[in-house]
Amino acid sequence: MTTQAVRPGSTATAPDEAEVRAALDASWGRPVGLLGWISTVDHKDVARRYLVTAFVFFILGGLDAALMRIQLARPENRFLTPDQYNQLFTVHGTTMMFLFAVPVMTAMGLYFVPLMIGARNVSFPRLNNYGYWVYLIGGVLLYVSLFVNSAPDTGWFSYVPLAGPGYTPGKRADIYAQTVTFTEISALITAVEIIVTVFKHRAPGMTLNRIPLFVWAMLVTSFMILFAMPWVATASLFLAADRLIATHFFNPAEGGDPMLWQHLFWFFGHPEVYIIFIPALGMISSILATFTRREVFGYPVMVLSLVATGFLGFGLWVHHMFATGIPQLGQSYFTAASAMIAIPSGVQIFCWIATLWVGRPRWTVPMLYATAFVVLFLIGGLSGVMVASVPFDLQVHDTYFVVAHLHYVLLGGAVFPLFGAFYYWFPKITGRMLDERLGRWQFGLFFAGVNLTFFPMHYLGLHGMPRRVYTYLLESGWGDLNLLATAGAVTIAASVLLFILNVVRALRAGPLAGNDPWGGETLEWLAESPPRPYNFAFQPVVQGRAALWSRTPDAPVVVGLRTDMREVLVTTVMDAAPDNRHRHPDPDRMPFVAALATGVLFISLVFTPWGLPVGALLLAVPMILWGWPNEEDNEKQRRQERETVT
Amino acid sequence: MIEWSGLHSALDPFGPQAARVHGLWRFLWIVSLAVYVLVIAALAWAALRRRTPAEADPTPRPAAEVAGPALRTTIVGATVATVLILFVFLVVDLATGRPLTAAPRGGRGALEIEVTGHQWWWQVEYPSSRPDLRVVTANEIHVPTGRPVVVTLTSTDVIHSFWPPSLVGKRDMIPGEKTSVWFQADTPGVYRGQCAEFCGYQHAKMAFQIVAEPAEQFERWMARQRDSARTPADSLALRGQEVFLATSCVMCHTVRGTPAGSRIGPDLTHLASRRTIAAGSLPNTRGALAGWIVDPQSIKPGTRMPSNQIEPDDLQALLAYLESLK
């Protein structure tokens, strides 16, 4: 049934562009009004909402941290009660891991993967919309609970038996379990979409060994999500069941085992770090290539390093549990695995330095952030190798040394590249440029603030300050460095404010960006800024690894797809050869309704087991309507098939 | 810096265990610093070096095309160096770890102690096959210097973690399981420990002290701890004992030699011999003790100890009694 979808030729032989654009605008446009807004299936709409929401959660999580820093600025401070402090550090961790870091990374993937591979949209676009609303409901649930003073207070890791029914009465741990469930669903959906999109919707010519490094990074991340998230889903289900219907998965008195939680949680929890970190590696490769004018050195090695990190990331979880008395042989294995994961990270850093060496660097704000990644992440990476050593870890585990380590890894390794990526891709998303001068100030403050806040914590940890304490004794001598860390937190807050100011100014009156303000390497810079709902009037055909740099003026484009209804090209997994055409879904309200029903299901499960049957029945209705066949549409397609045959 | 609270730092080791880890830390720190300086120097050089016009050509090209063979060799060399450094790290780590986990030398002579975690205090027992030689106390562990101490750990409620950084690394206390750790204090002194696994409201104020003293002094302490509390001689303290037995104190605490025998809270038989109260939160002074009895919730919000409304006279008597529990 496949017509010849690719026809090399000049623009003269291609159909009239204005005509095609008008037709695509009509068939791919989003319906107007609020109902249209909630029923969008455009990956860019959904990704933008994810980005904005995740950024709001970043601010909220940051405010949680700011309150904690005020409390810890002085010994025996009474700014917060222990109850408030415990809620804040739990919500801070849960927010940053589940509501900010993972969603913001997958959102960057949702926005740019289809553009970089020359596709019109993601696969399963309605599911995509559903995933966003589910995520939003989960996040709102957590913050509503915080504002009514019943937020989870047992840590983002929520160890049992502390989080079990015996020691955390009330609904706090149940809210944690359900927040986790919401975000897992949304992350799993995103992962499936990205995997299928990358494998089946790449532009013709983009063979597997021409996929941009950022897309590889998102692909590896998505596979990690696919294998890691079900474990925390299982764990949070067990926890909810222990609390709601008195099962005994984690109750030692009834033959359960609190260690089961730790294994399940960290088998997810450690890959989670790499789920956050690997997309950032892809962002750095994108930024570095564009601003050094060189394709990143050692593409095959870079890809293999990403894949190796993805695999090794699943073999480290026990290094979070060294203090529990794991047998020594097991500990040695996990020490070796934890040290080994430094190798692919090192190789990538070496390749980037080589790229910079042979390149012609332009020191824009994204480049500053990408370079700062090496300076900061390396500190976190080296302290990471240190804590892989069991004897050393037993001294610094659960101290501020680890707080310092993890913030260097997550801020240096993920948030710095992410800010670089914001500056880099902001013009594509909004069509306007961020201000470079403000950007430099923001970068400088952020860099100084992060070091001021987190570097002293190494020392605090070595000198015995444990994590998750709401206060400490005057005699401990930890006061001065804590005050310094609080000053650092103020600096970070100033930097984030500056960023918001920069964004607001750019949105109102920033200079227009045009399609390709940086001279980028990959296909997203071929699309308009911001891109149309269909991304490309004519999907490009890829001629080389650096899709845009290798593009010839008479490059072929894809023709032969319908323009009067949404139709996308499906290509083969390995060679991205055109395979068939696929009828792409239209905007639909049912994903939104289904997300609301899912919200009712899980939130009512906080209070009663009846939430399950009632919520499931409620969810069945929009799900059935979602899949209901559209007769008119089918008829249209059949007619077209007949016409093609005759 | 340290007054009553005790030494508390992985960088101030006072026993063979912590000293080995401190040596490991120095190795890790020096190697990491060297690696860091080398990588950052390479990065800075790559970023700032002077470029020939051909090198600075802005036409996009694959980096591999521009790079000479020397660059490729450098990267391979750096990777090999990384692998070698990590291998050395692994060997040093295992060499440090083995003696730490192996049973102490002269294992039979080791002192055995059982520590049980509670929300938010530590029960300390010196077991013995003869019940009259057993010692039970709380939040303060006395050990003889120069002799290995094996601590068996468990918890009655949630997971806690036993950690005196100047002597040894931490070990979790898991309900329903027994874990153990050994250490040795070489120098007499007071070493502070703190719970290292988040355990609820008052995780921050769950500390203990290890008092290391010469063997004779330790034996004297043991002997005194084995005794029951003496009935106080002076009348004020005697009245204080009546107050103790007539108020809610007896609901949770034991004073051996009196009818008070509940084991919910710390054993108070020799309270006055301890350096701190409320699990290392306050020095054991008369004023602190009075504040703790009357209003523990403002000192340690969420503690299981309730506030007690006691008439001032009764309170003075009670304090006199508690101070007599030497």
Describe the structure.
- By secondary structure, chain A is mainly α.
- Chain A has 19 helices and five strands.
- In chain A, about 65% of the residues lie in helices and about 5% in strands.
- In chain A, the strands form two sheets. Chain A has a two-stranded antiparallel ribbon with strand order 1-3. A two-stranded antiparallel ribbon of chain A has the order 4-5.
- In chain A, helix 4 (about 80-115) packs parallel to helix 6, helix 5 runs antiparallel to helix 6 (about 170-200) and helix 17 runs antiparallel to helix 18 (about 610-625).
- The longest helix of chain A has about 35 residues, at about 80-115.
- Chain B has nine helices and 13 strands.
- In chain B, helix 1 runs antiparallel to helix 3 (about 70-100) and helix 5 packs across helix 9 (about 310-325).
- Chain B is elongated, with a radius of gyration of 28 Å.
- The mean pLDDT of chain B is about 95.
- Chains A and B meet through helix 4, helix 8, strand 2, helix 10 and helix 11 of A and helix 1, strand 1, helix 2 and helix 3 of B.
- Strand 2 of chain A pairs parallel with strand 1 (about 60) of chain B, so a sheet runs across the interface.
Chain-wise SSE layout:
The complex is a heterodimer of chains A (646) and B (326).
Chain A lengths: L5 E2 L9 H12 L4 H6 L4 H30 L9 H35 L8 H23 L24 H29 L12 H32 L13 H35 L1 E2 L3 H14 L15 H13 L1 H17 L6 H24 L1 H7 L3 H31 L5 H27 L16 H31 L47 E2 L8 E5 L6 E6 L6 H18 L3 H17 L3 H15 L1
Antiparallel strand pairs in A: 1-3, 4-5
Helix pairs in contact in A: 3-4, 3-5, 3-16, 4-5, 4-6, 4-7, 4-8, 5-6, 5-17, 6-7, 6-17, 7-8, 7-9, 8-11, 8-12, 8-14, 9-11, 12-14, 12-15, 14-15, 15-16, 17-18
Chain B lengths: L15 H33 L12 E2 H4 L2 H33 L9 E8 L2 E6 L8 E4 L1 E5 L4 E7 L4 E3 L8 E3 L5 E5 L5 E6 L12 E7 L1 H12 L8 H12 L2 H4 L23 E2 L4 E2 L2 H9 L1 H4 L12 H13 L2
Helix pairs in contact in B: 1-3, 5-9
